[in-house]
Structures
1.
Amino acid sequence: MDLFRKKTGLLPHEESGSTGHLKRTMGAFDLTMLGVGCIIGTGIFVITGKAAAENAGPGLMLSFVIAGIACVLAALCYAELSSTVPAAGSAYAYSYIVFGEILAWVLGWDLILEYGVAAASVSSGWSAYFQGLLAGFDVHLPLALTAAFDSTKGTIIDLPAVCIIMLITLLLSLGAKETVRFNLIMVCVKVGVVLLFIGIGIFYVKPDNWTPFLPYGFSGVLSAAAIVFFAYLGFDAISTAAEEVRNPQRNMPIGIISSLAICTVLYIAVSVVLTGMVPYTQLGVSDPVAFALRFIHQDFVAGLISVGAIAGMTTVLLVLLFGQTRLIFSMSRDGLLPVFLSKINAKTQTPIRSTWLVGSIIALASGLFPLHALTNLTSIGTLFAFAVVSVGVIVLRKKRPDLKRGFTVPWVPLLPLLSALVCIGLMLQLHISTWIGFIVWLLLGLLIYFFYGYHKSLLNRKS
């Protein structure tokens, strides 16, 4: 068995002779907005409060700095590989050329988990904020339709979560241009709301709230950094769009690095203001930013924050589902998943079947099962992908120095090695239960590969 057979073409249709490739419609600005759309969302509006209350205290700002540094290192590596291998599929596509089919499958299967759990988790948070907004107008859904199935609470299905996933699936099926346009509007709304929070909240900061600064010690800061890494999934999702980007050698690095820089600054600023406004012990709520404004009696602005949070999480869902559909499209086109999923709609130039399959599965999962409890699986999956991509830069430099690179990581192999080590270090901060779930998922994926993917692979058919 040749488990490490590699692609030689930079694009899937170059390898297989297929004409099934996506239309290039996006520029650097579109990519930057997609990144901001995915990175700014649950991380600010949901995770910050619990990470401060349970892990880091005011030291949360250091957690975002550490996570940001790890992301900057990984982003440089992603920028080089995405400008060298401008194909849909992100780390999966890179690994197919650099390491071979078996590791490409592992990365692809890892990313399926990463995007799926993240989308289900965010849709649950979206539902909570949306129901809170309705309650402000004295509108209440029947209890059975407000959350995932729980016989003790009388809930059956989270209807708002199902509806938002299906609406976004419909939008994605209309085409990349429509997706980008909608994302831009929502990004403007949520960034405006985040800046409004910072602008108002900074006048209510009390330095006493930053004492003690590290109530859980530095280990708590590291644990929080590993948890908030969930928020930085966005620039990985950008790289799945490489095949739909005009001049990817130039635009991919700009989109990845600029979106990460913007979002890291906003995350650090929000964590500084949030922990300065409210004692960290009181931040363990589902809507910490709105709670902080209610804490200082800015109820009207808190309502605006809820609107911004809904817009923010909508764009997160949009980009996560976009990334998931492009990943499955790429794996299907390579034969590792059923080939009917790589069917492209002639009018919209979108992978229509994979789009509706992904949307339907995630809608049902988020509506019926409390998957938000599995959020840490997204963090470990993201860190694993980042570590592999970082090592991939070193390997590809050595094996294919002839390839045209639109961006090159400085100080190779030092920076990629540092990136991989930081990611592995953060993975080790996650709970053993997260590791068990991650390993079980990968083992399940290997079974599918050996019983289906290996035999159906286009490379296997060619050989």
Note: Confidence is low (pLDDT under 50) at residues 12-19.
2.
Amino acid sequence: MSCGEPHETDCSEVLDHLYEFLDSEMPDVDRDKFQHHFEECSPCLEKYGLEQAVKKLVKRCCGHDDVPADLRAKVMGRIDLIRSGQTVPQHDVAKAPAAPQES
């Protein structure tokens, strides 16, 4: 996605780190770069608005559920593995129980 205009921060970088921006999990200097990008790139701003709306909807619908304390750390660790090109160990992946088969 791109508006076709050159930007100081590339659209792909902005979209790759959109949730870090939404969750305020990036340094202020990067947040400022992203904010500037959104001001000049309407396709990225539109994507930002859509993802922000989805995030608010999920929070409203699911925000009251208690989450195990170590879940976030496990999820972030898996994301880091995937981003670095490593494979996620199969023994670590929670498997859903098999659905009962009808006779």
Note: Confidence is low (pLDDT under 50) at residues 95-99.
3.
Amino acid sequence: MNDSILLDPTAELAPAQRERLARPESLEGKVVGLLDISKPRGNVFLDRIEEQLSAMGIEVKRYAKPTFTRIAPTELKQQMAAEVDLLVEGLAD
């Protein structure tokens, strides 16, 4: 018999379910946002992604969360949604 108890740290009784958005066929003409969540060395990963995208002629915008321990502020999420077509979030661990 398994006596394990799983705890959900979100305390959500019914988590929101969303379908994934379709990937664009091309990045041509798109603006790509890079979000640094402020974990150590995440910026190193995003620097490399920016280099690659810029070399392909793709416009890149950089953003950073104030701390990785909290969700992005609403103002930052609204800014990103208004300014970019796609977003890459840099996680590091």
Note: The beta strands are 31-36, 59-64, 86-90.
